[in-house]
């Protein structure tokens, strides 16, 4: 469902931030991208939905080449790709319910969006998704009254209300404590397994990636230096990805 070929990204004329990226995702896979800070994880995710334009290469998602799309075509493709952010990207003064409905904007005309016109079916979908994520009771609370973990569940609900085929999660647990992180990762895994949605997640924590992923991709300096099953993530692989051993990466 996603095929990336020969992808390059340079922000300026110097060394590319991503080079020669080749990867494929199948429907229903749960894949993590790990790598040190600055390796290019966020850039890679954003090149998929063209929040960032790749410099060279091909990104085929759901049988459509993403790189050549015009604004209208891109909007249609993007509706099928949900995104979850480290800092949630919610509108704090709006309610949980309103934020979740924003996920439907990709299916609306500009006017419908401005006037926040949503059908009963869309509203019910938003509530059902909030219910699945244990957030229905907070539907009419303002988002600035929520904890980080609750905000992230709203972020996930907003992505799911798009009814996406692919969920891109950019360090979804980087701002959360261990308990909230577990709740979020469990939800993402469940979404993948029960809804068949493909999940691609950037993570800083190797042990979390190993626990939840079907497959792991390791990035170093913009290049894929590892791709395999969690059990194949040897000390050699860790060194290739991070330039140090796993023990040295674990905080005492
Ligand atoms: N808009 C930008 N303009 C110029 N350089 C950028 C821009 N965004 C990112 N970079 C650079 O590209 C490189 C990769 O950044 P990116 O954020 O993709 O890495 P990352 O692996 O996600 O890092 P982190 O784990 O710290 O979020 C870094 O050197 C960064 O400074």
UniProtKB/TrEMBL annotation:
UniProt xrefs under CDD domains: ABC_PhnC_transporter (cd03256)
Naturally occurring in which organism (per UniProt): Ureibacillus massiliensis 4400831 = CIP 108448 = CCUG 49529
Domain of life per record: Bacteria
SMART domains documented for this protein: AAA
Domain (ABC transporter) ranges: 2-246
Record-annotated membrane-spanning stretches: none
Pfam families, per the entry: ABC_tran (PF00005)
The protein, known as: Phosphonate ABC transporter ATP-binding protein
Record's keyword terms, sorted: ATP-binding, Cell membrane, Membrane, Nucleotide-binding, Phosphonate transport, Translocase, Transport
Keyword flag RNA-binding: no
GO CC list: membrane
